[in-house]
Amino acid sequence: MATAGSMTPHPYYPQDLILDHYVANTNTVFHTLVYVSIGFFTVLGLVGVLGYPRRHSTLGPLGEKVAFFWFILCASLHLGFEGYYDIYHATLAGDNSPIAQVWKEYALSDSRYLTSDSFVRVVEAITTLAWGPLSVYCAWSLYHNLPSRHIAQLMLSLAHIYGCTLYYATSIFEGSPHSDPDPYYYYLYFWFFNSFWLLFPAYLLQDSIRVLVKAVGDAERVSAAEKKSKDKKLH
């Protein structure tokens, strides 16, 4: 705890940021990455187990397998990892649970996560409450090849692109004062890791638009053919 007139030392930016409840991580970066890897491969294993019985159906093509993995990964992150932030954001800087230590490691690229920043809190709350369940539905609808799959996929993809764009833009607009300027944290943590929520959704968005446009076109042609057939019978 900081004494009167002093500030608790911490590694975050801006360097005059006050985090009086900050407690340094007890895990090394390596151990933190091990936790992240365990989570990643757990999701990958879950996808493999769920997808194996469907290997000859809708989950046969590689693109569908990747999409299914993406939706399960998003659901896990939104409901679990980001849900943890939503609950414990106010005490995260002094929290040393495994999930909190991952957050504190990531916060080196964006300290807004340790200060209960209003924008981050709102975005993360929406992500957990809306996009988490929608990710589950996207995985479910893909697994069962439901017709509504592409409507949900389009909605989720637009939400991810919009949210990630705002996340980048609000930081860049301010000059990225919350990021450690070290390229490792700024370009790897902040830019690279978050870019997946632009790239994957962009691919899935165009996929859904293509399928929906084709479906509407086919429906219109069928409707036109039926109308033409009825007109012939009337004459």
TrEMBL record:
It is a multi-pass membrane protein. The keyword Membrane applies. Coiled coil: none annotated. Belongs to the EBP family. The keyword Calcium does not apply. InterPro entries: EBP, EXPERA. Keywords: Isomerase, Lipid biosynthesis, Lipid metabolism, Membrane, Steroid biosynthesis, Steroid metabolism, Sterol biosynthesis, Sterol metabolism, Transmembrane, Transmembrane helix. It comes from Linnemannia gamsii. This is EXPERA domain-containing protein. It comes from the Eukaryota. The chain crosses the membrane at residues 29-50, 62-81, 119-142, 154-173, 185-205. It is found in: Membrane. PANTHER family: 3-BETA-HYDROXYSTEROID-DELTA(8),DELTA(7)-ISOMERASE, STEROL ISOMERASE. Residues 63-205 form the EXPERA domain. Signal peptide: none annotated. Its main location: membrane.
